[in-house]
Amino acid sequence: MTDKGAKPLKVTDTVLRDGHQSLLATRMRTEDMLPIAAELDQVGFFSLEVWGGATFDTCMRFLNEDPWERLRQLKAHIKKTPLQMLLRGQNVVGYRNYADDVVERFVVKARENGIDIFRIFDALNDVRNLEKAMRVAKREGAHVQATFSYTISPVHTVDTFVDLSRKMADIGADSICIKDMAGLITPYVASELVSKLKAKVKLPVQLHSHYTSGMASAAVIKAAEAGVDVVDTAISTMSLATSQPPTESIVATFKGTPRDTGLDLERLSKIAAYFGEVRKKYHAFESNFVGVDTNVLTFQIPGGMYSNLASQLREQNALDKMGEVLAEVPRVRAEMGYPPLVTPSSQFVGTQATLNVVAGERYKIILKEIKNYVKGLYGTPPGPVDPHVRQLAIGNEEIVECRPADLLPSELAKAATETGSLAKSEEDVISYALFPEVALDYFKKRDAGEMLDKEVVAAIAAALAPPVVSVQPEGVAVGGDGERSPWKAAGRYMLARPSSWRHG
Ligand code: CO
Known about the structure:
- By secondary structure, the chain is α/β, with parallel strands linked by helices.
- The chain contains 22 helices and 8 strands.
- It has helices spanning 15-23, 30-42, 55-62, 67-77, 100-113, 128-139, 158-171, 187-200, 216-225, 247-253, 265-281, 295-299, 303-315, 322-335, 345-358, 368-375, 387-394, 412-419, 426-434, 436-464, 486-496, 500-503, and strands at 10-13, 47-52, 83-87, 117-120, 143-149, 175-180, 205-209, 230-233.
- Helix 9 (216-225) links the parallel strand 7 and strand 8.
- Helix 2 packs parallel to helix 4 and helix 19 (426-434) crosses helix 20.
- The two termini are 39 Å apart.
- Bound molecules: cobalt (II) ion.
């Protein structure tokens, strides 16, 4: 740490969560995080965002890793800096509402395994979907960062976000996060929003933005001038494009000012070099969007959503319809009452828009998720749903007025029965409750892995056994390079593993 300013700007680095989620399809493996973890811990960050969002699902689905184990290992290496996660409110780390018992035990276990700060949001900004997670996190002694999904629409204004934040403060928020997942916030709106939040909500404010439209660094500067407490950045080699603004550039920007972060650029540049090398390994997962994407300003389509739309169209052999789909997304969004486009609304609005174009008739086919949304099963839409579309989607069915999760029966007991001996811990049961098929698949591979390990042990034992013909001991010594070397025996076995074992 170097000298801090009078009111130092605090920094959260996102490289271990949002950075690689945005740039490398969430594929960074724990083994590439641990070697640099202690160094990250020394920087003096306000927090490190390391868990939640899409990382939980991806660990099991593509990396054959236990997300809980990742968290425990990071906690063992990062001893001083608070660990932060992104929690999708009642959707936890999944794509639907879960029953309260799942939310409750997930938060308890996340806390127990190492999360200090819970950043909790809801795609529709329906506070009823945040309340359960907020109360449990608070009770467990964690920092509750209540979060709103920032968007632009006729029903969203600076004042509606301030009112929303007041409600979240009443439930017990310790801080407020502006979550600008699409990189839409302009520097001047950021300034106004931060000033009003600081004046009227009187809680620390953190700004999370994405570089997608090219404005995020400028937004950080104006937010800092307006008194924002913490900003999210990503180490330079994992920043820009759809990721966060670069950590070092922000640190350098405020050097010698009252908002000097006091963070050491030399230390940061070593970390940047490390991730620059790591990133090369994940080349196959790089998105096509490497620069500034102005579609986000014209169509309000977040970067990640753009590539999903393209791949949906490619599957339908209709990539030439991209222009029509881009124009259809804001139309569907307006008819849905302007939900912010973030998981899971970005998925179902995008898919419905694609269907509307590809099917040749709008709402000829209607997604189940759209029907549920219109019914109120995701919460209250920010604005009114178009009455004609409502009629098409659910006819005269009544709208759900209660908190959506009140309709859901408890899920964990059933999950425990269904997993049986495949679950080795309560964490496993929770993983299964969240992603049944993905978790079962992972548990089975893990069990098979334990058997593989036994075979490796047997191979090593066999290699170490006195050779039948030769009496010379050198060839069997540990680290020896003879054909009977246990490491070669184990190595052969590793190579025989299916390639999906490690590369998804
Ligand atoms: Co983000």
